[in-house]
Design a protein that fits this description.
- There is one protein chain.
- The chain is of the alpha+beta class and about 550 residues long.
- The chain contains 16 helices and 21 strands.
- The protein folds into two domains: about 100 residues, Immunoglobulin-like (Sandwich), CATH 2.60.40.1220; about 400 residues, Glycosyltransferase, CATH 1.50.10.
- Strands 1-3-6-5 form a four-stranded antiparallel beta sheet, with no helix packed on it. A four-stranded mixed beta sheet has the order 2-8-7-4.
- The longest helix is centred in the last third of the chain and has 18 residues.
- The protein is elongated.
- Keywords: Signal.
- This is Glycoamylase-like domain-containing protein.
Length: about 550
């Protein structure tokens, strides 16, 4: 039996020697190499950094030590233009953190990208599993761009420079204001109303003489009375500055625009009250203005005597636009003028149409500030500007609101929103605020706290001087002294800018430039408020609508 056991032992050993066990060796697990964290200087803010210094230290940490020789090919530091930024590399945490720092200071307010690609290797020769990329925007240059002057001198300078848009750039034939600095023949009726008020301001501030201003406004009124297209007395939004023909604002908006007409009439009535001398020239101007204003058929725009005004009408499309003028928005002046006409619209049109039988009220709190009227958070700031270039809101009340409270609180809410900056837009704050309608990158929008695209329009804060003088002055100093190299140009401040997107408009718009010079003047002297509120028909119309004011 012993020999059988030996035989089995030999057989078993032979089978093992011949490789009968086909089990493969366990696979080798490659070393893991992955991104762990990143920060710029002492800040950890995900993958986007704003307001960094010009020599930032970019730290990127990995799960293992980095193979130093792989960094040059795998990592890049580039400007938005595509230019490579030379950088030095230092090491921390046993080479698991690399620190990239530009050799020379970066440019201010410029976007850069730092990337570590998948060709980056660990000391164990493992490739980075996923590329890492972060963006950074350097801070603005906080040095003053212009010498410091007194606050009063700064206000005058802003008014004088902005005035040039309407004076130097006014259309040579009609004298009317071009829609924007690239508009050529296209002039704007509403913006020209603002421009007329700007000309009156220019006379008072001695930018031009009274006779020069009178001659320009005579040119405007002669053109409006003899050449400009009118539809039941109302003007189109846009006109050809040489021929007076209507230029469509949109396909069906090729006729009357009652709201833009209101802004024009507001300016004309202000001029009538200003040029009150008994000589033949000023007398003729007043007569011409009265003829233009009295020709507007306000009641026609009630469309079959409805208790609401309609914004548009044209020969071709009739009432197809079908846009009732209902509040709260920029159109209060439209109802005030309609109630001030020789044949005034009835008060029921104001109550049922504009005030929507009281639904115009809001009375909610935003940032602990009560808003009497209008949409949530107040809407764009031009709601509190356009109608109040001539209508003085101070002490003004009716059934629906205290209008001083309305415009001041609307502005304060806009300011508070920008300071709180819930959208984390770079640059927003007590120095840099103001959301209203303006140009934006690749377009135009009515910015507000509920439609915030990261764009600030200087007209928003500057046209609010009568309401928030301290906050507006702080914004003005920031716009002029800190951003002046980018936004202060031949006609004052350009239309808008975004520090978030590093974008600066090169445009000027009449409806944004006009309120700047006019509302700064109302803040300083009340000039335009005093003139329009002195109109006998305005006093009567506002009383008929139920307004009370110490200025009526």
């Amino acid at each position: 039996m012993k020999w059988i056991a030996c035989l089995l032992l030999i057989i078993t050993a032979g089978c093992g020697k011949s490789g009968g066990d086909n089990t493969s060796p366990p696979p080798v697990t490659p070393a893991s190499f992955s991104f762990q964290a990143q920060r710029v200087d002492s800040v950890s803010a995900g993958f986007s950094y704003y307001g960094t210094g010009t020599q930032p230290a970019v730290r990127i940490s990995f799960s293992d030590a980095v193979l130093r020789s792989s960094v040059a090919a795998a990592c890049s530091f580039t400007a938005k233009s595509g230019d490579n930024v030379p950088y030095n590399v230092t090491w921390e945490h046993g080479d698991s953190t690399l620190v990239l720092k530009p050799v020379a200071p970066l440019s201010n307010l410029t976007a850069y990208t730092v990337t570590a690609g998948t060709t980056l290797l660990s000391v164990k020769n493992a490739k980075l599993q996923t590329a890492v990329s972060l963006s950074l925007v350097t801070a603005i240059d906080t040095t003053d761009k212009f010498p410091r002057i007194s606050d009063d001198a700064l206000l005058t300078l802003v008014q004088q420079q902005t005035f040039k848009y309407f004076w130097d750039f006014g259309h040579p034939v009609s004298g009317l204001a071009r829609e924007r600095n690239t508009s050529g023949e296209t002039v704007t009726s509403g913006g020209s109303g603002f421009g007329i008020m700007a000309i009156i301001t220019g006379i008072e501030r001695h930018f031009i003489t009274r006779s020069e201003g009178l001659a320009r406004i005579q040119k405007i009124t002669t053109f409006l009375g003899t050449k400009a297209a009118r539809f039941h007395g109302a003007f189109p939004h846009w006109l050809n500055g040489s021929t007076g023909a209507a230029i469509p604002f949109s396909t069906k908006d090729n006729g009357a625009d009652l709201v833009e007409t209101s802004y024009l009439i507001q300016g004309l009535l202000t001029a009538r009250q200003y040029f009150k001398n008994a000589d033949i020239t000023e007398t003729q101007l007043r007569n011409d203005i009265n003829a233009i204003c009295n020709a507007v058929e306000w009641n026609w725009f009630r469309k079959d005597n409805a208790n609401v005004l309609y914004w548009h009408w044209s020969n071709e499309y009739k009432w197809d636009m079908n846009l009732p003028v209902k509040g709260w928005n920029e159109c209060l002046i439209t109802y005030i003028l309609a109630a001030s006409a020789q044949t005034p619209v009835p008060k029921a049109t104001y109550d049922s149409g504009w005030a929507n039988n009281g639904a115009i009220r809001n009375n909610n709190l935003y940032y602990d500030i009560k808003l009497p009227l209008g949409p949530a958070l107040g809407g764009p700031l031009f709601f509190s500007h356009y109608s109040f270039l001539g209508i003085n809101p101070k002490g003004l009340k009716d059934t629906y609101a205290d209008y001083e409270e309305q415009v001041v609180n609307h502005t304060r809410i806009n300011y508070a929103y920008c300071v709180a900056n819930p959208g984390k837009n770079y640059g927003y704050g007590a120095d840099c605020w103001g959301l209203t309608a303006s140009d934006i990158p690749n377009g135009y929008t009515a910015s507000s706290p509920v439609n915030d695209v990261g764009v600030i329009a200087p007209t928003a804060a500057l046209s609010s001087f009568p309401y928030t003088p301290q906050e507006s002055m702080r914004a003005l100093k920031f716009f002029y002294y800190k951003l002046g190299d980018k936004i202060w140009k031949e006609y004052g401040f350009t239309d808008a800018f975004s520090l978030q997107h590093i974008w600066f408009a090169n445009s000027f718009l009449a409806i944004d430039q006009g309120p700047v010079i006019v509302m700064i003047e109302n803040h300083r002297s009340g000039l335009l408020w005093n003139l329009l509120m002195s109109c006998p028909e305005i006093k009567t119309g506002m009383h008929n609508l139920g307004f009370t004011s110490p200025h009526l």
